[in-house]
């Protein structure tokens, strides 16, 4: 980063999005980053007001920022899928967020539903492909609503798309103590796509002799997330399998309230976008009940992406300390109070 | 059933398959069913010997049985996917096993990795569609091995295929105390297929006013399997999502050593096939270490399918009693000993 301000686009979105983003920005400011934020009112209310989800002019404007912070999108008043596809997925595809980076890490002091697991057992990074697979939206429907209806979905996978995310994953694995990379797929059933993924990992692995690789079918991997999470260090997987196992990962690592993510364009041809893994949770919106921790950890990922590694580490450390404290009295703090407490630790 | 013998085709398969099937048959005999078994040597060794996986004449012969009991297929000496696709999946498709029935039930006395869950929290039945979706094998590859490779997989879903399994699921839900049916899919991304599934559940639900329905995205459902399994009673889902969540279900319900399944053709136009959810586990094959319980519970499902409900209940009861006993000394019993102990309880 040069010394100019970070230009950040903020999309609070729907439901609890605005509340958690407020706390994320509070922490971002406290860390001392010079940041200039512009808020975009994308989401359900704009959709209802204007019928638009993400107009092209807004998309073009967003392209000019250094990064995007997103709260959550989705509201029961909007037909399911519209905001997800035309806003969230559109940004991922248009900005070529081919790395969806999702750490699965059990912080000390955090309760996991897995009775026998300790923090050292659950410490992985899932690298989910973000621009291909079943998420491309290909497919169709024939004779809709009749007894003869046929509906298809097509998963599209390219050497170009798979290789770049696999390379990113090897680099990530190389930088971690265990240096282990697991491919998760379903090669015995998805033979065409699975073969491309497996061959790509094999080929690129020749360039990374220090990284150990292995392979799990997605069904077996899901089982091991619960029974032996210590098997995993860095995981690379396709868009849909990554969607499923990262929610599962969030569950075993203390819940969706703590799971952060980055939709990353490593080539920096467009801004990367950081967001909590959780959704808009309309049932608890506006009540100060949402946990802003996932957003604050997403801010740490954002700082890291901008090269502000020291700042990123300070935010993560502040969260880690707060999580240890939480073992008593956690339920009684509001969204703001959690944000304030973490902010105070960042300031030091 | 008329009073003639049950004609059962047995496919022990690979790895631990033969060992667990031996115990399953022991229990089947002990329960007093008049059963005539014929063993088929399908699997890795036949493949190596003859190059064949499932010759058409064998397929036709199998069609004549009342049911099939399968141990496990798959061996490291055979290229991945061959036995799975040309044997296991071929049988499911050829014999129209459109219901893949997989109970996820925590028996009293069994340890679950979920620290806080009790048997009453984990008691569901997953009904996985078995003849459509991404399992049809559609797709292709272009420019294989070049930087321009494209690999596709197509999920095919029909009103015919979805409706029949959804109807089965409603009937199943109606017969259970909670009368609750959850659809698991990913309607916000797989819009064509998801729409067909969701509309079908909505439409059929009008005929089942006593069954409550709800919907979960597969990612959220995976999380809830771990954090709140008590949400689920009967689940209906597509082939791939069912594959993933039933392995996850096996993990939370005490492990893959206990998970039974039935590949069912409810119209009885071909034999149904019963098999443990686990694989061939070549690493422990031939050592008497495999747990035959999943196979024995699959035998209970087989009995139930044949209308021998009292016999099925006796087998399940024997397993339940054995599982309570296991809390001490479990690890020390061999495959045979477990089979013998359960058999002794069946005999009474
Ligand atoms: C909202 C939905 C489209 C999205 C996805 O499936 O990617 C979400 O589940 C996620 O994981 O970010
Ligand atoms: C072996 C494999 C093809 C199979 C499947 O994916 O259905 C297995 O995982 C299962 O669940 O029975």
Automatic annotation (TrEMBL), chains A, B:
State the needed cofactors, names only.
Answer: Mg(2+); Mn(2+)
Annotated transmembrane regions: none
| PANTHER family (UniProt xref) | D-MALATE DEHYDROGENASE [DECARBOXYLATING]
In this chain the Isopropylmalate dehydrogenase-like domain maps to 7-342
Q: Does the keyword Manganese apply?
A: yes
Q: Which InterPro entries match?
A: ICDH/IPMDH (IPR050501), IsoCit/isopropylmalate_DH_CS (IPR019818), IsoPropMal-DH-like_dom (IPR024084)
PROSITE patterns attached to this UniProt entry: IDH_IMDH
Species: Streptosporangium algeriense
**Signal peptide span:** none
Q: What is its EC number?
A: 1.1.1.85
> Which protein, by its recorded name, is this?
3-isopropylmalate dehydrogenase
Which Gene Ontology molecular function entries are recorded, alphabetically?
3-isopropylmalate dehydrogenase activity
Q: Which Pfam families does the entry mention?
A: Iso_dh (PF00180)
Keywords, A to Z? Manganese, Metal-binding, NAD, Oxidoreductase
């Amino acid at each position: 980063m040069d010394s100019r301000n970070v230009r950040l686009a903020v999309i609070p979105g729907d439901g609890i999005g605005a509340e958690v983003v407020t706390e994320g920005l509070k922490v971002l400011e406290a860390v001392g980053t010079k940041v200039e934020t512009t808020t975009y009112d994308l989401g359900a209310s704009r959709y209802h007001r204007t019928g638009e989800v993400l107009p092209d002019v807004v998309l073009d404007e967003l392209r000019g920022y250094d990064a995007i912070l997103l709260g959550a999108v989705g509201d029961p008043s909007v037909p399911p899928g519209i905001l997800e596809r035309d806003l969230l997925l559109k940004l991922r595809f248009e900005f070529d967020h081919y790395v969806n980076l999702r750490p699965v890490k059990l912080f000390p002091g955090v309760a996991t539903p897995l009775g026998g697991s300790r923090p050292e057992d659950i410490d992985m990074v899932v690298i989910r492909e973000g621009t291909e697979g079943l998420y491309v939206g290909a497919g169709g429907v024939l004779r809709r609503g009749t007894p003869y209806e046929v509906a298809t979905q097509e998963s599209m996978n390219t050497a170009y798309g798979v290789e770049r995310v696999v390379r990113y994953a090897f680099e990530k694995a190389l930088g971690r103590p265990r240096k282990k990379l697991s491919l998760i797929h379903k090669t015995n059933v998805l033979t065409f796509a699975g073969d491309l993924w497996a061959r790509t990992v094999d080929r690129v692995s020749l360039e990374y002799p220090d990284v150990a690789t292995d392979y799990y079918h997605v069904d077996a991997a899901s089982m091991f997330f619960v029974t032996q999470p210590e098997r995993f260090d860095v995981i690379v997987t396709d868009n849909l399998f990554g969607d499923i196992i990262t929610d599962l990962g969030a569950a075993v690592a203390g819940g969706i309230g703590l799971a952060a993510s980055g939709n990353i364009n490593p080539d920096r041809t467009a801004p990367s976008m950081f967001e909590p893994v959780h959704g808009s949770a309309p049932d608890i919106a506006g009540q100060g009940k949402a946990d802003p921790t996932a957003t604050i950890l997403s801010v740490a990922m954002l700082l890291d992406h901008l090269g502000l590694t020291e700042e990123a580490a300070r935010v993560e450390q502040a969260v880690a300390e707060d999580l240890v404290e939480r073992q008593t009295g956690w339920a009684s703090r509001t969204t703001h109070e959690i944000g304030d407490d973490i902010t105070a630790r960042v300031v030091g």
